[in-house]
Amino acid sequence: MARTHQSARLDVLLAEARRTPHVQLTSGSAMHLYARLGIACKRSTAQDDLKAAAARGWLTPHGPDNRRHYTLRGTR
User: Fold this and answer.
1) Sequence ranges of the domains in the chain
2) Dihedral, 70, 72, 74, 76 alpha carbons, nearest 10
3) pLDDT, tens digit, 9 for 90 and up, residues 40-72
4) Count of other CB atoms within 10 angstroms of residue 42
5) CA nearest 37: which of 65, 61, 52, 16?
6) Residues 6+ away with beta carbon under 8 Å from 8
7) Which long-range contacts (CB under 8 A, 24 or more apart) does 29-35 make?
8) Domain 5-72 in CATH 1.20.1250.20
9) What is the DSSP letter of 25?
10) How many CA atoms lie within 13 A of 37 on its CB side?
C-alpha cells in the first residue's frame, strides 16, 4: 500500500507529541512543525491532521472548536 502525505504528516505529529508529551498541539504549532521540516500546508490541513490523529486514538482533543488543542492520549 502506498504511503500518503497525510500518513507522513501524522507520523511527524505523533513523534512530536511523544517527544513533548505535556505540550498542547494546535493547528498553528503543527504548521510550524511542518514548516521546520520543509512541509508546506494550510491551517485546514493541520486541523484535519490533528483530527485524524485524535480519531486514531493517538491524541485527545480539548477545548471548544474555535480554540481546540490536542495532547498525547493519557496526558493532560
Assistant:
1) 5-72
2) -50
3) 899 999 999 999 999 999 999 999 989 999 999
4) 10
5) 16
6) none
7) 34/9
8) no
9) B
10) 15
